[in-house]
Amino acid sequence: MTEDKVPMLDSAAQDAKDTLRCRRVEDALYRRACGYKVRLKKSFKVKRTEYDSDTGKKVSEREELEAGFEEVHIPADVRVCAYFLNNRDPARWREHPKEEGELWGGVVDYPPMEEPLAPSETALSEDDV
Fold this sequence. Notes:
Order of helices and strands: HEEHHH
Largest sheet: 2 strands, antiparallel
Number of strands: 2
Number of helices: 4
Distance between the termini: 83 Å
Radius of gyration: 32 Å
Number of domains: 1
Mean pLDDT: 78
């Protein structure tokens, strides 16, 4: 091989590795956003009791640890969902959507109230609840 082809191969190999790493992170982020199940290896305490076959009385009792698997559900994370959607489709899922024609986020200007409400007017009565 010539020397000018080797850097091109190195660059292509590095790009492929970077793409694979990004894909793995995207997949992990998607799984975390949707929730998933995982099998965990756990130890369980098992009680063994032996009985005499003639009399039916308990002869011995011992406890042992046995390995087993338990399926655990990892719930979806709302923050990860928001992050994923914000980055996937920012025009549709941005946190603070902009109004049409708005170039930057602004302040909403409400007209002033004529007179403040008395505390008795703002409280809920028992009939309202």
